[in-house]
Amino acid sequence: MQPKYDLRKIKFSVDEGTFKRAVGLYEGGKVIDFEDNLRGYSATVTGTSPYFISVSNTDIRKGNCDCYVAQNKNELCKHMVAVAIYSILRGEKMKEDESAIEEFACSGKLGELSNEELFEVKKEISSATKFIKGYTGPSKKWFEYQSSLSEGVCMLELVFSKLPVSKQTSDLVIKTLLKLDNKLCKGGVDDSDGTVGNFIYGSVEILKDFAKLDKNCLKSFKIFEKQETCFGWEKDLNLKEI
Ligand SMILES: [Zn+2]
Asked: How high is the pLDDT of residue 225?
């Protein structure tokens, strides 16, 4: 049975390095003895010593591996990710765009979104920000929580990287960042790994590129004349220096 997640979701749930290493294991034929069972999959990943893995078919974050990373660091390990990839591709070769890591950067294209596109983008942003929520642990495992933050951030990175450059989209980016800033400040988000913070700073760089390409974007920075953020990232949007 196919899992409820897809390759995109897997990619978004782990850091770049883990994803790449998992792809390496999958493509190197290291996933063996793969079996479907009622709630998910089990398999062995070969290496210096074999690891025994189980992964849920509904949530990539739920599963087990007897390697050091999964057991001691409580993180989603490359073996579990490799087995999850196997559950989708079943030994087929991974396409290049499926294994590619998208770059988080300004699209460089000038333009506005149509009303319809704007509606869709707002919907994507709102579903992404739902993953960035307060930590209610300890019942929830830390790595499950971290990976939820990372999934939300990856979705947002993808949306921001596709945006055309104009005051309209610059307003949208700033509004989203202010919402995240508020979540970090008052929403109980535990960003001790800096996932969300790094995303905000990355987005500020994108906003600077926006302003270089279209001076109208500077108008949307004016909101910071009246409003300060918790973390002061808006100070990088100094109108005179751009
Ligand atoms: Zn492992």
From this structure: 86
Cα 25 from Cα 116, distance rounded (Å): 41
| pTM passes above 0.90 | no
The confidence band for 241, taking pLDDT boundaries of 50, 70 and 90, is: low
Spacing, Cα 163 to ligand 1 middle (Å): 37
Cα 158–Cα 164–Cα 168 angle in degrees, nearest 5:
110
Distance 87 CA to ligand 1 centre (A): 16
Buried b (16+ CB within 10 A) or exposed e, 134-150: ebeeeeeebbbbbbbbb
CA dihedral angle for residue 155, residue 157, residue 161, residue 163, rounded to 10 degrees: 60
For residues 54 and 13, the model is more confident at 54
Domain coordinates in residue numbering, the chain: 7-99, 115-236
| Centre of ligand 1 from the C-alpha of residue 124, in Å | 32
Write out the two tokens for 218.
């500077």
| Strands lying side by side in the sheet with 51-56 | 31-36, 40-45, 51-56, 63-65
